Amino acid sequence: MSLVHERDYEVRYDTTVTGEFLAGTGIEIVREPAARGQYQHALFDFDGTLSLIREGWPEIMAPMMVEALMNTPNHEAQSEIEWFVRDLIIRTTGKQTIYQMITLAEEVMKRGGKPREPIEYKQHYMDLLMERIAHRREALRDGSADPEAMLVPGTTSLLRGLLNRGVSIYLASGTDECFVREEAELLKLTDYFGAQHIYGAIDDFKKFSKALVIDRILRENSVDGKHLLGFGDGYVEIDNTKCVGGTGIGVATEETEKNGKANAFKRERLLGVGADIIIPDFRDSSTLLKYLFAE
Q1: Distance of alpha carbon 283 from alpha carbon 262, whole angstroms
Q2: What gap in Å lies between CA 177 and CA 76, rounded to an integer?
Q3: Residue 4 above 90 pLDDT?
Q4: How far is it, in rounded angstroms, from Cα 16 to Cα 291?
């Protein structure tokens, strides 16, 4: 697997499997990790895994893409375009945003249109998204919103529990690094990771990927992949974690309702790339940590 070019979603594991639930929790053990009690490092995705600031972003990206494709000379019926865009987003969620926009530009060209530069599509999308979430960011900035309200339930308890067990934790996101750092600060998460352990997309996008971050963690610390935990609601970080022999924990978050139940769509996607454990959120973090560290 390339450490730079993130592959699209592809089912490689059985998605019909049902695991065993830890008593009284929503923690589903799909397969028992071989390295329980031996974890030294943990990688986290950001949006949808820890942060809910950008909840609803597909509702911004999809119409933008549909509009661009419907403005081409040889487009299909709108219903077909809408289905195509939903599938495109499903296949690429978790990758850097620029890759989604590169694909959009290619699809515009295929339909006889003259595409804008991917970076222009990305900027247009970011402008629309920022307009949608501006009130959330401002409420965090001026103190009128409690950061806990915009975190996946149980986030800080889990992070503290990992640090208390001597685990080094890292944040890696397909969102631009400047925004990841800013929003991690707004959510009061920076101190858990430290400035040196927060990574996100950069302008020279070919020099960043979650796989590169994982490679760096293992190489610089001279540890085997089995000592790595990967937490995410998207396929990329779980796929990358599994590829080095780590334990993938799929966070099947219900971002809107936050009802403690696993989102069925996310669960199936996470199973497809080999998630070893599925959780709806981190509210049962104490039980999860005791299990992971064989306590």
Answers
A1: 12
A2: 36
A3: no
A4: 24
| Model pLDDT for residues 116-149, shown as the tens digit of each residue | 999 999 999 999 999 999 999 999 999 999 999 9
Q: What is the pLDDT of residue 3?
A: 57
- CATH homologous superfamily for the domain 20-52+151-292: HAD superfamily/HAD-like (3.40.50.1000)
Dist. CA 46–CA 54, nearest whole Å: 10
Question: Which pair of structure tokens corresponds to residue 216?
Answer: 């760096």
Laid out side by side, the sheet with 277-279 consists of 20-21, 28-29, 277-279, 247-251, 228-232, 41-44, 168-176, 198-201
Instruction: Give the C-alpha separation, 144 to 114, whole Å.
Output: 45
> Which amino acid does the sequence have at 188?
K
Is the dihedral angle over the CA atoms 146, 150, 154, 160 positive or is it negative? negative
For the full predicted model, state whether its pTM sits above 0.90.
Answer: yes
Helices (H), the chain: 58-70, 78-92, 97-110, 118-142, 155-164, 177-186, 190-193, 210-221, 235-243, 264-272, 285-292
% pLDDT > 90, the chain: 87
Delimit the domains of the chain by residue range: 20-52+151-292, 58-142
Q: How many residues does the chain have?
A: 295
Q: Are 43 and 193 within 8 A, CB to CB? A: no
| Helices first, then strands: H and E counts in the chain | 11, 8
Partnered with residue 228 across adjacent β-strands are 41
- For residue 65, which of 18, 121, 130, 123 has the smallest C-alpha distance? 121
pLDDT of residue 102: 94
149 close to 192: Cβ distance less than 8 angstroms: no
d(CA 248, CA 7): 17
